Amino acid sequence: MKDIYILAIETSCDETSMAIVKNGRDIVSLTVLTQMQVHANFGGVVPEIASRMHTENITMVLEDTLKKAKMQVSDVDAIAVTYKPGLLGSLLVGIEFAKTLAFVYKKPLIKVNHLIGHIYANAINNELKFPILSLVVSGGHTELVVMEDDYKFKLLGATLDDAIGEAYDKVARVLDIPYPGGPGIDKLALEGKVSYDLPRPVMDNSYNFSYSGLKSHIINVVHNHKQKNEEIRRADLAASFQYVAVDELKRKLELALKNTGIKNVIVAGGVSANKYLRKEIASVCEEYHANLSIPEIIYCTDNAAMIGAAAYPLYQRGEFADFDLNAESRYSSDREH
Ligand code: KG4
Ligand code: ZN
Predict the structure, then answer these.
(1) What is the pLDDT of residues 101-120, one digit of tens each?
(2) How many CB atoms lie within 10 A of CB 233?
(3) Which residue out of 87, 168, 187, 329 has the highest number of ligand 1 atoms within 8 Å of its CB and is therefore the one to mutate?
(4) Widest distance between CA atoms in the chain
(5) Which label site among 39, 161, 232, 283 has the fewest CB atoms less than 10 Å from its CB?
(6) Do residue 61 and residue 103 come from a single domain?
(7) Least distant ligand from the CA of 310
(8) Which residue's CA is the nearest one to ligand 1's atom 2?
(9) What CATH number does the domain containing 209 carry?
(10) 37 and 108 within one domain
(11) Taking a C-beta distance cutoff of 8 angstroms, is the pair 248, 281 a contact?
């Protein structure tokens, strides 16, 4: 069978990324240019700056990706691009660039849902075995999804308010950890002890999540300490937050493992880079004799390699996008392809 090379483009938030992916699983080359340091000055992503920086950088990212692969655009079989969900202006930069390449080089265009991309990060250097329980933990989403086959998803539950990554970022902010706070909390928590008593969301028998109560409680704890001029045990608070946040994921995953009997688990999204989460989810899977896949750290956070992996099943089915492809932010059903 002929090898299929897909040039994938990801610009949904603050990373300008491109990759060339062979047969949906081998990464020929990957470039991730992050704007993180710029946005850190503002405590979060500034959409207007993000789209402008994508525009400035995208050609350079393409050149770098091609150079590392020792390939030309004419060598690839298709162009894939993230079209939702994300920041509209940022998505549009990637989409217009992808359309231009597809038009000029006469290649099919493939549209990829960013969340499905995160899930397919687990197909990199790996074979997905269905059915799968998929736990998506990113800056914008927290979901438990059953995947019965390629692109066959059934949502079990999702967050009713904040996503787990958002909670990490907000908690980090009150602890004076620069944006994005997740990696900072991950590190700081290693030095701390779980010693703050924090509230847990009470939704026992559903698969839904809630992180806004936990986040607000921590913000209040920090403010109260500051008002009284008391010292905050930052590392302990970070460890206590992670303990409750990840425990929620564990509880819902256990419930799903029990109720569905599924024996394959994958974790996806930026927060899956978290060391504590990786360890804790691994121990749940061990207990239930389930196979666990979590992407390598570089494929956990936003990158185009996962977009190339997710585009491959669509290429095989001949599901191509038209040139009227448009960006979608996050109000429509995010999991629908
Ligand atoms: O998937 P992602 O890169 O972007 C979205 O699609 O949202 O996820 C970004 C989120 C941010 O909230 C960031 O703080 C979090 O992932 N994150 C982490 C870690 N690395 C990134 N959270 C906890 N521990 C980490 N090591
Ligand atoms: Zn993402």
Answers:
(1) 999 999 999 999 999 999 99
(2) 15
(3) 168
(4) 69
(5) 283
(6) yes
(7) 2
(8) 270
(9) 3.30.420.40
(10) yes
(11) no
Q: How many helices (H) and strands (E) does the chain have?
A: 11, 10
- Nearest CA to 301 out of 41, 29, 15, 7 is that of 15
Q: What one-character DSSP code corresponds to residue 207?
A: S
Q: Any idea what DSSP says for residue 327?
A: -
Residues of the chain falling short of pLDDT 50: none
Question: Which residues form the pocket of ligand 1, taking CB atoms under 6 Å from any ligand atom?
Answer: 13, 118, 138-140, 165, 168-169, 180-183, 186, 269-271, 273-274, 301-302
- Give the model confidence (pLDDT) of 14-36 as tens digits: 999 999 999 999 999 999 999 99
Ligand 1 centre and the CA of 284: distance in Å?
Answer: 21
User: What whole-number distance in Å separates Cα of residue 249 and Cα of residue 137?
Assistant: 9
How many Å lie between the centroid of ligand 1 and the Cα of residue 173? 14
Ligand 2 is an ion; residues with CB less than 5 A from it: 138, 302
* Within-domain flag for 337: no
Same domain, 154 and 263: yes
Same domain, 169 and 32: no
pTM above 0.85, yes or no: yes
| Residue 328 is assigned to a structural domain of this protein | no
